[in-house]
Amino acid sequence: MSRRSIGQRVVREMMGPDGEKRLVGGAESGTFGADIAGFAIDQGFGEIWTRPGLDRKARSLVTLAVMVALKQPNEFAIHMRVGLRNGLTLAEIEETLVQALPYVGFPAISTALAAATKVIEEDKLDEHSDYTGHRGLL
Question: pLDDT digit string (tens) for 47-88?
């Protein structure tokens, strides 16, 4: 099985058929950035996400922490959804933010909280009917 087909399978499993369609479509488009999408599929998902040593849940925690540290809210939101598909709970994602706090600071956590809140609201993930958005910072 080729790296591309393995990568596509992993993308489909972690991002669903729509995520696979977007990423593979970008890789096959021949347009600006197509090669980068191809590298993401082949190397990121076809090689790195399939390595032994860490399961997908652990890899998701690492990825979320990196996205927090880099202040990448779009990627944090994407990988929060991936993490949930990989078995993470909202409580584990929140605890990841707590763990990262002394290392990355409040501004980075605030950026991640805003992205997480948007995912929670869009995907209707909060169990509490009175949830109105994140309440921890600004």
Answer: 999 999 999 999 999 999 999 999 999 999 999 999 999 999
d(CA 60, CA 84): 9
Instruction: Tell whether 47 and 59 lie within a shared domain.
Output: no
**Count of structural domains within the chain:** 2
Does residue 98 share a domain with residue 71? yes
Which among 89, 28, 31, 96 is positioned nearest to 61, based on CA atoms? 96
DSSP 67-114: HHHTT-HHHHHHHHHHHHHTT--HHHHHHHHHHHHHHH-HHHHHHHHH
Q: Which pLDDT belongs to residue 61?
A: 97
Residue 135: is its pLDDT beyond 80?
no
Residues 30, 37 contacting (CB under 8 angstroms): no
Do 60 and 79 form a contact (C-beta atoms < 8 A)? Answer: yes
Whole-model pTM: value is: 0.88
> How far apart, in Å, are the Cα atoms of 88 and each of 41, 82, 105?
22, 9, 23
